[in-house]
Amino acid sequence: MNRYEKIGFAICVVLFLVNSLVLVCLSSSTNKTFKENVKLREFIEEPIVIEESFENTEEAPNLPEKTERMIKVEELKKINNDIVGWLEIPNSEISYPVLQSSDNSYYMNHNYKKEYSKEGSIFLDKDYDWALPSTNLLIYGHNNRGTNLMFCGLMDYKDQNYYNSHQKIRFTTVEEDSEYQIISVFLSRVYYKSENNFRYYYFINSENKEEFDEYIQNCKALSLYDTGVTSEYGDSLITLSTCEFSQKDGRLAIVGKKIKQEP
């Protein structure tokens, strides 16, 4: 082996070691995130044991009725007040806390404890105003291919058979525990400023009926299949958004409407 061959061999060895170290670090990070999420899910699903503290029920305080999950979200907010709710698609791997910060980049690479994490978190658009409240809960998450973490599982909605058995989204805050009926699943992408296209990722508040109806019409027109469900002005919406890799800057979006509770 001559001098140049030795140098080339040494470079290959170094690159191999570096790549191996990177893979080990990535695997370690993914495993840590997976374990954290298992603990969180166990916490959110564990029944609450309520002790009887009032012998005479007439003496009990008149507290507003809360579901167990609403109480659990309240507990999670003590860890991080940026936690605004819990998102779940029943009978799927998607069951996570939802966070909101003053920008849309922080929770792209931080977990619910504000620790750095390449998997990031599920997070609500910064412009959603709880005081209004806004029209559309626009929620983002990474499509972590090969890990089944965060919003990776949303890709299953490309198949209508999967939609048929997973039509509901549950979103719980400290104020309410709600279900949403999925009305549209569609593919899109992030468009250039020069392009005049439907940008679903800008829709958070509807100024009027026309704006709301236009959003729903565009969602339905792009739908991968007919869900047989639509929405009307006055409905509260939820939109789940993640990366989709069949095109450059591709996105997959799932839009649902809140199911109104019977009085």
Give structural notes.
The chain has 263 residues and is an alpha+beta fold. It has a single domain (64-258), classed as Sortase (Sortase, Chain: A, Beta Barrel). 27% of the residues lie in helices and 22% in strands. An 8-stranded mixed barrel has the order 1-2-3-4-9-10-8-7. The protein has a two-stranded antiparallel sheet with strand order 5-6. A hairpin with a 6-residue loop joins strand 1 and strand 2. The longest helix is centred in the N-terminal third of the chain and has 43 residues, at 3-45. The radius of gyration is 22 Å and the shape is globular. The N and C termini lie far apart (84 Å).
Attribute tags:
Sortase, Chain: A, eight-stranded mixed β-barrel, 263 residues, alpha+beta, 27% helix
Topology:
Blueprint: H1 3-45, H2 68-76, E1 83-88, E2 95-99, E3 122-124, E4 136-140, E5 143-144, E6 149-150, H3 160-165, E7 168-172, E8 177-189, H4 209-222, E9 237-243, E10 250-258
Parallel strand pairs: 2-3, 4-9
Antiparallel strand pairs: 1-2, 1-7, 3-4, 5-6, 7-8, 8-10, 9-10
